[in-house]
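Researcher: I'd like a structural prediction for the single chain below. Treat it as a standalone chain; there are no partners to consider.
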Amino acid sequence: MTIIGILQIVLFVVVLVALAKPLGAYMARVYQGEKTSLDPALKPVEKFLYRLFGTRETDEMDWKTYAVAALLFSAAGVLFLYALQRVQGFLPLNPQAFGAVSPDSSFNTATSFVTNTNWQGYAGETTMSYLTQMLGMTVQNFVSAATGMAILIAFIRGLTRHQSPSPSGRGVRGEGHRGEGLGNFWVDLTRSTLYILLPLAILVSLVNISQGAMQNLTAYQTANLLQPTTDSNGAVVTTQTIAVGPAASQVAIKHLGTNGGGFFNANAAHPFESPTPLTDFVLILAESVIAAALCYTFGKMVGDTRQGWAILAAMVILLTTFMFVAYWAEANGNPAFAQFGIDQTASDANPGGNMEGKEVRFGIARSALFATATTATSTGAVNSMHDSYMPLGGFVPLFMMQLGEVVLGGVGSGLYGMLVFVIIAVFIAGLMVGRTPEYLGKKIEPFEIKMAALLILIMPLTVLGMTAFAVVHPDGLQSIFNPGAHGFSEVLYAFTSQGNNNGSAFGGLGANTFFYNILGGIAMLISRFWLAVPTLALAGSLVKKKQVPESAGTLPTYSPLFIGWLIAVVLIVGALNFLPALALGPVVEQLMMK
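Model: Treating it as a single chain, here is the predicted structure.
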């Protein structure tokens, strides 16, 4: 590892933490209905949207109504995006006259973007029209992220409210009223999109365009080759088609909303998506900043910012540690090359380490930083090919997802996932000292633990069950292009990615088949909505509880001791769930390499 590489990781962490407070405070004002600097421009639009939805910002929903609204909205999104892909050949803004996408691929892609996964079994520039990219993918990048943020805010209200308004009440805050209100899904969705995601997306888009990212609606360009070549059939090729399009706007929101995917097949390694090291840094920061800032938003909304800082500290410690593990693994290079006398030491003339599958514009440190951040935040975008990483380097993005996407995680979903781990940590600590566990003045009782257990167990059951099925089923086996441990890692990575709504791919797996499209689509639906509904049920249970005054026996959930305990719980649960499977993949591959 080099000093420059280490400083790049340190700089990223410092900037991320520095931005958490101002952005988090702003988001708290947005969700609490307080004035913001954007009100003069956006308040009329917000009110118009409420009239369009047929709702009022003072209307309240209990957890069941909130869940039904989120599910129905998402179901409509799946149907619309599926239909759009099937008929895109008859619609305008289709520069290469792309035809209809196959039914199984359309199903997989529709569920992928609506669930905030953005897993792609297709190459964007050879499959999707501009209209499909903009009206389908880009729109879902906004609203799927906003849905996760809305569910988080409902969960926070469940923790903070103890005399909330009834579902038919009128009070926005609801103090002094009894009921089970968690807010209004349509209001939270609108505010997340209008006041947070849209302004930030415009800002990031402008930065990307200023650096040379592609943003146009022109037809694909044809360039004459300086030297003719031949194709796979032996025919002489003298020209090359260069794909262009409205990439910068989609790239901005895919990172800010922790969606992932790519306008182009090469994703953020493509110079039209991320032209310079500056845009690369901005995109890594974009995919992390909202998730980090929501921790401070949580602290502001519960009335104790120490709670938010404690959770962010646990996330940042885990994130930074694994970034350095990935960097170390890649910087050391491949020991098998030593016998050939290949020098893998970094120097001015040689980047050193394992440069396979990496962009020379970014290098090893930035690639390791990106790979860890994109899998920690459930973004799934890539600036290097994870399939080319060293076994332990590939272990890191795998394990970051297998922790449950709670180390920052997806916008909204990451924090409510981490809050479930907080509840588990508080419960176990309470058992140790013989006290009824409580968090933020709410007693943690059997129903809360049952919901928390569901939230922790559904993901590994989905991932491991589907991986096991794929590696014994003939249709699953025929698409694995690499033998042995690495091939197993590719399948495990695919279902880990889809089962955590991440969307990144290891590569080396032919995933655009009927088998993987259908199975993967089911995995993505489960990992999004079978977790969202228990989360709202947990919020519905907490909102009905009375506030318990803090006493001398109350466990301080903001102390360094609790931060360490929370980190331990996250790591132990992740290891117990996935260490046997990891031992069959990257761990044994690392041992075989030596």
